Amino acid sequence: MIEIRKLKISFNSHVVLSHVDLTIENGDSIVIIGGSGCGKTVLLRSIIGLIKPDAGTIRVNGEEITRMDRKDLFRIRKKFGMLFQGAALFDSMTVEENIGLALKEHTDLSADEIQKRVQEKLNVVGLPGIEEKKPAELSGGMKKRVGLARALIMDPEFVLFDEPTTGLDPVMADAINHLIIETHRKFNITSIVVTHDMSSAYQIADRIAMLHDGRIIFSGPPSAIKKSELTIVKQFVKGSGGLIHGFESS
Amino acid sequence: MWMSFWQWLGQRTVAFFREMGTVSILLYRILIGIPSIFRDHHLVLKQMLEAGVNSLPLVSVVSIFTGAVSAWQAAYQMEGLMGGLVSMNYLGSGVSAAIFIELSPVLVAIVIAGRVGASIAAELGTMRVTEQIDALEALAIDPVRYLAVPRFVAGWTMLPMLVVYSYLVAHLGAYVVAHFLLDVSTSTFFGSVQRSFSIYNIFSGLVKSFVFGGGTALIGCSIGFQTEGGAEGVGKATIKAFVFSSAFILIGDYVLAMILF
Ligand SMILES: Nc1ncnc2c1ncn2[C@@H]1O[C@H](COP(=O)(O)OP(=O)(O)OP(=O)(O)O)[C@@H](O)[C@H]1O
Ligand SMILES: [Mg+2]
To answer: Do B138 and A105 touch (CB under 8 A)?
Structure first.
């Protein structure tokens, strides 16, 4: 279970998250929506301790991570997989080394076994046979899917997906959505997905939370969000734009 | 007007000590991470190859010309300024001592600062701005252990080896000039080298190169890890790493000379 309480994060006096409260139960599949620049990525990064908040607490299975030392933080991070918005593949390594790195570092598996598991995961994301390629040789969508394979390789308890379908064609986006749903069901993963794309959100989510102005302004099942009376939520859901935070402030 | 000067000076001083603090913390984390090199030997070997073996051509060129020019200049000084009072019997001694104590350790270190220190900063800086370092963290892999320790160990061990190699090549350069251009016989030249030879000179040269090699790699890693601001930031980090490590080498050389001699 992840419990976020009164989370506040700012960069040089620019407050990005002012007061975030969010509880994610084990086995949940939660989708976080919100305008561009509203702090969704910042929120995900803080959950695995890549950003230290100014105030507030984040508990993972009851353990407070914001004031943890590095050794304990690394122990917690092993429970997580993260797909970065820009994939963040290691560009000096091949696809196989990228995906297999965590296995190599954290397990005693043989090189053959690691190779086998990497191939399995590549098949799952629909990219068989690209083991030897370097990230520079891949398209944006392929990088995303390799990043997804890397995030899932350790069969983590929690997976954070930062815009998993952005930059993919509709067919592939649909396939990735199904992959997220499937891994979620099969391995009972807790998944936290950030997306702009409402149709993905409806497909994936047990629960949708909307981030706006540094707070969670709505949290509930997909059926409830359609009925929400909040103007901002309505506009976002209907895709009429207008009041999206990023445009508003710039 | 003055107020703003003092403000500026104050800010600079605070920034300097903050920087020193950051570097010290990184050094501490690298040092406690050193036992991991046995597990990560493939990473360390790769960096040693990069910092050491791949620097050989450059170090060869720098060393041979350093030896050659110092022999030529020493001969000029002996002939001209001292009116031929000092015989060419002392050419080897003077040149050799300079190579052992100063020339090889400092010049090789500066070449390495440009080649290895700057490339560490550029590589780690790029990894920082493209979130690859965050990705390592997210995979529960310590970037200090995985990236900084192998580079530090490689810089620290390979620079002394390059300096030893440079000793040989620089002497060769000096000998070629002395023998073929200045008509100093082989036995006179090496006899003279032998007379000034002292283990302590070699030892002090190697102590310097340990400090310079470790320092250059440490500065490159520290600046690389702190890079921000995209491609432009990486460019700035590269320059900064070279400037800081060169300054570190020259100032460190002075401080070590005070301590060692
Ligand atoms: N390292 C940083 N330093 C300074 N400001 C930052 C940093 N990271 C994020 N920000 C700021 O925080 C705000 C939120 O950024 P974030 O990346 O979380 O947005 P987002 O909701 O993920 O947007 P998008 O949907 O476009 O990815 C932005 O205004 C950004 O400028
Ligand atoms: Mg984002």
So the answer is: no
Q: In what order do the strands lie in the sheet with A55-60?
A: A63-64, A55-60, A2-11, A14-24, A215-220, A207-212, A29-33, A190-194, A158-162, A80-83
Q: Which amino acid is at A49?
A: G
d(CA A84, CA A41): 9
Angle formed by the axes of helices B104-112 and B56-76, to 10°?
Answer: 140
d(CA A9, CA B203) in angstroms, rounded, equals 53
* Helix or strand holding residue A190 (H, E): strand A190-194
Q: How crowded is residue A202: how many other Cβ atoms within 10 Å of its Cβ? A: 16
C-alpha distance across the termini of chain A, in Å:
36
Task: Give every CB contact of residue B181 below 8 A, 6+ residues apart in sequence.
Answer: B72
Closest by CA to A202, choosing from A186, A215, A220, A183, is A220
pLDDT the model gives residue A249: 41
ipTM comes to 0.91
Confidence of residue B80 (pLDDT cuts 50, 70, 90): low
- Write out chain A residues lying below 8 Å of B140, CB-based: 74-75, 77-78, 102, 105-106
Dist CA A94 CA A92 (whole Å): 7
- The model carries a pTM of 0.90
For chain B, the residues whose C-beta falls within 8 A of a C-beta of chain A are: 127, 130-132, 134-142
Q: How far is CA A19 from CA A5, A22, A160, A218, in A?
A: 8, 10, 21, 13
Q: How far separated are the first and last CA of chain B, in Å rounded?
A: 45
Do residues A40 and A9 lie in contact, with contact meaning Cβ atoms separated by under 8 Å? Answer: no
Distance CA A10, CA A12 (A): 6
DSSP, collapsed to helix, strand or coil, labels residue B155 as helix
Cβ–ligand 1 contact at A167 (below 6 Å): no
Task: For residue B199, report the distance from its CA to the centre of ligand 2, in Å.
Answer: 60
> How far apart, in whole angstroms, are the C-alpha atoms of residue A239 and residue A236?
5
Cα separation, A246 vs A248, whole angstroms? 6
Facing B135 at nearest CB: one of A78, A88, A106: A88
Strands A190-194 and A158-162: parallel
Of all protein residues, the one whose alpha carbon is nearest to atom 9 of ligand 1 is: A42
DSSP SS3 for A213: coil
Q: Is A88 helix (H, G, I), strand (E, B) or coil?
A: coil
Domain-wise residue ranges, chain B: 56-260
Owner of token pair 């002395």: B178
pLDDT digits (tens, 9 = 90+) for A149-163: 999 999 999 999 999
Bigger pLDDT: B127 vs B81: B127
| Residue B210: other Cβ atoms inside 10 A | 16
